[in-house]
Amino acid sequence: MVSEGMVALLIPIVGTVGLFTMIVFLRKFDNDEKMAMIAKGMMPPSKSININPANSLRWGLLAIGVGLGLLIGHFLETSLGFDDEVAYFSMIFVFGGIGLLSSYFLQMKINEKQQHKEE
Length: 119
Fold this sequence. Notes:
With 119 residues, the protein is mostly helical. The protein contains 3 helices and no strands. Keywords: Membrane, Transmembrane, Transmembrane helix. Residues 13-107 form the DUF6249 domain.
């Protein structure tokens, strides 16, 4: 008979082994596909990583907004007696939205400056 403690111990072990196995097989299949393309005389596509600064700006400002939302939500809960779910969720959404809007407007300014430089 398997106890609950044994199952709780096996879950992370099986999850880690499963994740590792999946990564190994995905890498193997990717390599096999590239080798088959080379055997047929085709050039396998090169994987170049393009970092988009707009995405970094968007995610960074969203994270700052969510962090501020959590901070203000905590302040509303402790100081003003708001319900904790209302305080946290409303402030996370408000400040997260403000972060996304600010990233949009900053990106618009950056794009406008780049267009003026090109002209």
